[in-house]
Amino acid sequence: MAQNDLEARHLETLDRDLGRFSNLEVATGYISRPLVAPGIAFVFILLAGLVAAVLLGHSNNVMIVVVAAIFGAYMALNIGANDVANNMGPAVGANALTMGGAIIIAAVFESAGALIAGGDVVTTISRGIVAPESIGTQATFIWAMMAALLSSALWVNLATWIGAPVSTTHSVVGGVMGAGIAAAGFGAVNWGNVTTIAASWVISPLLGGAIAAAFLWFIKSQIVYRDDKIAAARLWVPVLVGIMAGTFSSYLALKGLRQLIEVTLTGSLLIGLGIGIATWLIMIPVIRRQSEGAENRNKSLKPLFGIPLVVSAAMLSFAHGANDVANAVGPLAAIVEAAQSGAVTENVSIPLWVMLIGAFGISFGLFLFGPKLIRMVGSQITKLNPMRAFCVALSAALTVIVASGMGLPVSSTHIAVGAIFGVGFFREWDAERRLRKARVAMPVEDQLGPEERRRRKLVRRTHVTTIATAWVVTLPAAAVLSAIIFLGLNAISG
């Protein structure tokens, strides 16, 4: 009996020890899980440096190029984590795409846009912010570009961590400006261009929000609030999809494919008009077939916007990859050119291996870190459905066309997020308007008080404050950080 008791106690002790090991494994899993994504990102960054070392091993200043490639890969990862959410967030928030589907589509089209239409030549001094000749020597120029690249990447990384979608273009501009000031003084900066960019902080979101709200008002007034919703949808949805197809065709011709073929604004609009009319005619029988047997209620309208929304997200990703890859690899290409040739020029060619770092970095950043911002953009600012998300996507493309015609430099991030705000605030206004009409016939005791109406706001004010603050701070924060990094690099090299 004593022997049996002893064995039982040993078994209990063994069970407790095994339980501790099991708990330890679970705890280790929770601890290590957050480190998986940074670990993969770290390996990608090291591979980028290794590629630069292998390809340029016999060149001058190879270590400078390797470090620059590492910084460029880091920036590309952050662009993927932050910027791409603007394209995919509305589709995911409207449940037109799953998170996995959005990541796959975005990765494919971002990479395709970067590699096919990413551009052989970019203005490496970020659209005339700083004159190259004012910076001085080759070494000073390299350190300035290095500081701009690292500071903008660090700022976008911080913004992603706090959950604020910011403009990577403005981050790079701020980085170049700060390094230019540190290197050559305030006179090196083209303050006229900086003022125009600052003005776009206000213009981009307001224009995007107004256009998105206008389309949502049209959909509600002409389809949702009609007695026969299905008949109204058969009439107007093909028109709306045609407008979307025409707008995206013009957008891609003007912004995404400009390096393959030379297209003027007028030419892009004519291309868009032709494709838009063709799409409208094709969609008439398609929408009729989709809506057969549908009930006369709002839920039946949502599937009609699903496929156009997915296509629009893909097209936005393609155009984004074509345009914004330069934010990651433009300064890197400038460093490679200056390190190899010793020349400091405003326009440089981007080697294929540099473009690959940008394209794959954006895709990896989206896959590893993008879901956080996609969820925030897609569902945490305001509730989206396919119709609202369609208005956001259409507004993003249309606003770029309008701004290009006006000669305004705009941010795709500000436009997309501004469009979401516009949709949300329009919903609040429309709900309040309908409530006022209903209140006329409602007994006084059943009417909602001011506190209850505030509680029912459809846009989260905390996100408005956080995002607006991040937008305003982006350029000066990146500039100050860049200046500090440049002075440190210059001191080390000197």
TrEMBL record:
Say yes or no: keyword Transmembrane present. Answer: yes
Q: Where in the cell is it found?
A: Membrane
One Pfam family here: PHO4
The protein's UniProt keywords, in alphabetical order, are: Membrane, Phosphate transport, Transmembrane, Transmembrane helix, Transport
Entry keyword annotation includes Chaperone? no
Q: How does the record classify its membrane topology?
A: Multi-pass membrane protein
- Where are its TM segments located? 35-56, 62-80, 92-119, 139-160, 172-192, 198-219, 231-254, 260-283, 304-322, 350-369, 389-406, 412-429, 464-489
Q: Which InterPro entries match?
A: Phos_transporter
Tell me which domain of life the UniProt entry assigns to the organism this sequence originates from: Bacteria
**Family assignment from sequence similarity:** Belongs to the inorganic phosphate transporter (PiT) (TC 2.A.20) family.
Tell me the PANTHER family matching this sequence: PHOSPHATE TRANSPORTER
**What is the official name of this protein in its record?**
Phosphate transporter
**Native source organism of the sequence:** Paracoccus cavernae
